[in-house]
From TrEMBL:
Keywords: Hydrolase. InterPro entries: Cof (IPR000150), HAD-like_sf (IPR036412), HAD-SF_hydro_IIB (IPR006379), HAD_sf (IPR023214). The keyword Phosphoprotein does not apply. PROSITE patterns: COF_2, PIPLC_X_DOMAIN. This is Cof-type HAD-IIB family hydrolase. One of its GO terms (molecular function) is hydrolase activity. It comes from the Bacteria.
Length: 253
């Protein structure tokens, strides 16, 4: 069983899938290995890559939404009252939020440069304005847009939430204890895999729990040192055939 993060792991710094990575994934599938994404992205953000690679299993929203062979097997949305409280506090502090469900995302601000810069790195435009988007649907993840220094106030106030920074101006907001490892645990239990049979590739802070949980962890060469330290293996940069090299390094190809 092999899990792949997307941004900075499968997709390079220009959000492209290297040809060597595509060939490696298809070879893994041909060899009979079970393949899934493990990402902070929402399901609606995965469709192009899912179609290109023919993968219908994933751990999304950093573990809060798990799809196995096209069937939803686990969800863990943030309670509406918690999001309402977070929204009121963020509004008071002048920090915008973006709310994400399985089908889309909306912003608490009509326009904000922090959102534009951060979301732009994912090659998405500034989301549409709907400050009450969370009120009548399941929200699995929220993005908070502020500096790391400002984030500390949220961490102290909202103990029922986890804040995982993915950009200098933004952090993912999850239910407390939520992680890719949590989603993977439910995924492999359904299939009957042991942790020792599971491999995972990642490159960023939201991959830490996943890399510590699986039996065979691989950090991309472009990972920060904090991620490399917890991984069993370190492969090359994503733009230097890091996926193909890493799969050869661990003996899967």
């Amino acid at each position: 069983m092999v899990f792949f993060d997307i941004d900075g792991t499968l997709l390079d710094h220009d959000k492209r899938l290297p040809a060597s990575a595509k060939e490696a994934i298809l070879a893994l599938k041909e060899a009979g290995h079970e393949i899934a994404f493990a990402t902070g992205r929402s399901p609606f953000m995965l469709e192009p890559l899912r179609r290109e690679l023919g993968i219908d299993s994933f751990v999304g929203f950093n573990g809060q939404y798990v799809m196995l062979h096209g069937k939803l097997i686990y969800t863990n949305p943030i309670p509406t009252e918690v999001i309402r409280s977070l929204s009121e506090y963020a509004l008071h502090r002048g920090h915008p939020l973006v709310y994400l469900d399985a089908e889309g995302m909306r912003s608490s601000s009509r326009h904000h440069p922090y959102i534009e810069e951060s979301i732009g790195t994912l090659q998405y435009p500034h989301p549409e304005y709907d400050p009450h988007f969370y009120a009548d649907r399941d929200i699995y993840q929220t993005m908070l847009f502020c500096t790391g220094q400002d984030e500390s106030g949220y961490i102290e106030r909202f103990r029922e939430l986890d804040f995982v920074r993915w950009h200098r101006l933004s952090a993912d907001v999850l239910p407390f204890g939520g992680s890719k490892a949590q989603g993977i645990e439910r995924f492999i239990a359904k299939l009957g895999f042991r942790r020792e049979q599971v491999y995972a590739f990642g490159d960023n802070l939201n991959d830490l729990e996943m890399l510590q949980y699986v039996g065979h962890s691989v950090a991309m060469g472009n990972s920060p040192e904090s991620v490399k330290k917890v991984a069993r293996y370190i492969t090359k940069d994503v733009s230097r055939d890091g996926i193909a090299y890493g799969l050869e390094l661990v003996g899967l190809l």
